Amino acid sequence: AVASSITREYLEFQSDRIERVLASHRVPVRVHGGSVTPRWIRYHVAPALGAKVATIRNLSEELALALGAPDVRLAREGEALALEVPRPDVEPVYLLSMLRNLGGLPPLTACLGLAEDGRPLLIRLPSPDVAHLLVAGTTGSGKTELMRTLILSLAFANRQSQLQIALIDPKGRGFAPFAELPHLLAPIVTSIPMALSLLDRLIAEMEQRDRENRSMPRILIAVDELADL
Questions:
Q1: Judging by beta carbons within 10 Å of its beta carbon (0-12, 13-18, 19+), is residue 185 exposed, middle or buried?
Q2: Do 220 and 108 meet the contact criterion of CB atoms below 8 Å apart?
Q3: What angle do CA 147, 151, 156 make, to 5 degrees?
Q4: What per-residue confidence (pLDDT) applies to 175?
Q5: Are 158 and 111 in contact (CB under 8 A)?
Q6: N or C: lower Cβ tally within 10 Å for the chain?
Q7: β-bridge partners, 30
């Protein structure tokens, strides 16, 4: 569904512009469908037979200029292309609203935000593919915000008896808002010696419980600014 001020007329006008820009460079395409997310407008671009994708990529600056956007992103989408244009009226995505709309999460499952198609993006910690998570990106790209979302989502939906959390934050800023989180195993760690001591304690506890065949809650160990350790 089209949201906010992004009307169907606006989408059709931009689609026509995309087709005209590419046609002026002898790259015939058909723009159809598309979707609107809180941050992007995604157009489906079907090049004519023989059209070179590299040529379309090389025209990204000209497309952005014609669409009045700071930039555009182009990606393969099956036999077509997806042209993503930043929305002129970016909408914030609120975690608590998403969690309420979901009506409850499965155990040990976090909501990270919205996927490209606008659906909630979930990650289940017990999944075999999610033993470890590495969040990478440039400065200011939102790494810490993503980790905060993961932690808050898990704490919101799981009791302390199900999940305990250990936070390692060398700069003392990224996880500071969670200092009073009831799920914390220990105060937020801010130095290498403290981190090593905490990890040694967790390993000893797990080995002891394994020998005694006792179960223990899932433990989430989150590290912010890994390069500083």
A1: middle
A2: no
A3: 145
A4: 92
A5: no
A6: N
A7: 46
Q: How many Cβ atoms from other residues are within 10 Å of residue 136's Cβ? A: 7
pTM (two decimals) = 0.69
Name the least confident of 66-75, 82-91, 130-139: 130-139
By the 10 Å C-beta count (0-12 exposed, 13-18 middle, 19+ buried), 62 is classed as middle
Q: How far apart are CA 73 and CA 1, in angstroms?
A: 21
Chain segment 39-66, per-residue pLDDT in tens: 889 999 998 888 888 899 999 999 999 9
Tokens describing residue 5: 């001020």
Residue with tokens 């090593």: 196
CB 42 within 8 A of CB 116: yes
- CA 82 vs. chain centroid, Å, equals 19
HEC string of the chain equals CCCCCCCHHHHHHHHHHHHHHHHHCCCCEEEEEEEECCCEEEEEEEECCCCCHHHHHHCHHHHHHHHCCCCCEEEEECCEEEEEEECCCCCCCCHHHHHHHHCCCCCCEEEEEECCCCCEEEEECCCHHHCCCCCCCCCCCCHHHHHHHHHHHHHHHCCCCCEEEEEECCCCCCCHHHCCCCCECCCCECCHHHHHHHHHHHHHHHHHHHHCCCCCCEEEEEECCHHHC
With cut-offs at 50, 70 and 90, classify the pLDDT of residue 227. low
- Find, among 187, 185, 172, the residue nearest to 217 by Cα: 185
CA 97, CA 106: separation in Å to the nearest integer? 17
